[in-house]
Write a structure and sequence with these properties.
Helix content is 36%, strand content 14%. It contains 12 helices and 11 strands. It is globular, with a radius of gyration of 19 Å. The two termini are 25 Å apart.
Length: 337
């Protein structure tokens, strides 16, 4: 089985790119891409682009959320609530919202694509795949990694036969990996969660959340983790797909004020403070139906030069972000460790 490098670049669907993943793997880390926001053909293309650039290991991440339950009344109210916001940019909101991302738990084409392309690592977020999907990926030679925000979630992953577990602390940027976004969340920080899982779980633990430099990785290793997974640290790299507004916000005072919100996508996610994080999430449709409106509003505002409605995901370590090529960042992290 693959020996996981101590430095893992988080998948970050919509931000990480094949160029970034390849650069990280070539530098000795584990490069990752997120395919939860694309279809099977898109995943195949991204994986092929990574393979063209590196012979190193690749981590491909999928979303295992419960498929959305449509609610026309709730969705219509959500659209009407933001109609004035669209009008500010001379735009009209969508007539109806749709489930823009298909969950891996029901996406047979994505499973087929992963079995055929055989990435060294397949990681899952938001839940646990079915036993037959796990067996198919294992038969294809893939190492399986799952994300947990609590001991209960970690135990579910362990019982299912997942090979390693990412302990995602409350500090982490982007979508929180809770299995049930409506259940109580103890909001465990990375330090406490890593130690808890190292003591209670018999699988290797990967630390994620608030880690931005070599000292943070070293601290995670001392806590018993086998590696540190960094996402926000790689956003400012030129290989990321973050737009100019996202990069400017990350380099501004907004980096000191991240907030957890459901208003953008329908699921809890940590974002740089912006216009969307100021909105109440009361009445938000299911993920990813709500994201259909969020992306549309961002596009309308961005066309007018306003980036304040973007999904500018970032963790609490955002003020420590450094802009440099991904390979240079990996080498810097190694020296700091």
């Amino acid at each position: 089985m693959l020996e996981i490098p101590k430095i893992i670049q988080a998948p970050m669907a919509g931000v990480s790119t094949p160029e970034m993943a390849a650069a990280v793997s070539n530098a000795g880390g584990l490069g990752s891409i997120g395919v939860g926001a694309t279809n099977a053909d898109g995943a195949r293309k991204m994986i092929a682009q990574v393979r063209e650039r590196t012979q190193g290991a690749l981590n491909v991440n999928v979303f295992c959320h419960a498929p959305a339950k449509g609610d026309t009344t709730r969705e219509t109210r959500w659209v009407e609530r933001f109609r004035p916001r669209f009008a500010d940019y001379g735009a009209t909101p969508l007539g109806s919202l749709r489930e823009i991302y298909k969950s891996f738990v029901v996406d047979d084409e994505m499973l087929r694509a992963l079995v055929e392309t055989k990435p060294e690592v397949v990681s899952v977020h938001f839940g646990v795949p079915s036993a037959d999907r796990i067996a198919a990926l294992r038969d294809a030679g893939c190492m399986l990694v799952g994300s947990a925000t609590s001991l209960e979630e970690a135990r579910a992953l362990e019982v299912a036969g997942i090979d390693a577990i990412v302990a995602q602390g409350w500090e982490a940027g982007g979508h929180r990996g809770v299995f049930d976004p409506d259940a109580h969340d103890d909001r465990l920080g990375t330090l406490a969660l890593v130690r808890l899982l190292v003591r209670e779980i018999r699988k290797p633990i990967i630390a994620a959340g608030g880690i931005m430099d070599g000292a943070g990785i070293s601290a995670a290793l001392r806590l018993g983790a086998i590696a540190g997974q960094l996402g926000t640290a790689f956003i400012a790299c030129p290989e990321s797909s973050a737009d100019a507004g996202y990069r400017a916000a990350l380099a501004s005072d907004a980096a000191r004020h991240t907030e957890m919100t459901r208003a953008i996508s329908g699921r809890p996610a940590r974002c740089l403070r912006n216009r969307f994080t100021a909105e109440s999430a009361e009445g938000v449709p299911d993920y990813p139906i709500a994201y259909d409106l969020g992306k549309s509003l961002h596009a309308a505002a961005k066309a007018k030069g306003d980036f304040g409605w973007g999904a500018q995901w970032a963790g609490q370590g955002a003020p420590m972000s450094r802009a440099m090529p991904a390979a240079d960042l990996v080498e810097t992290l190694k020296r700091e460790m």
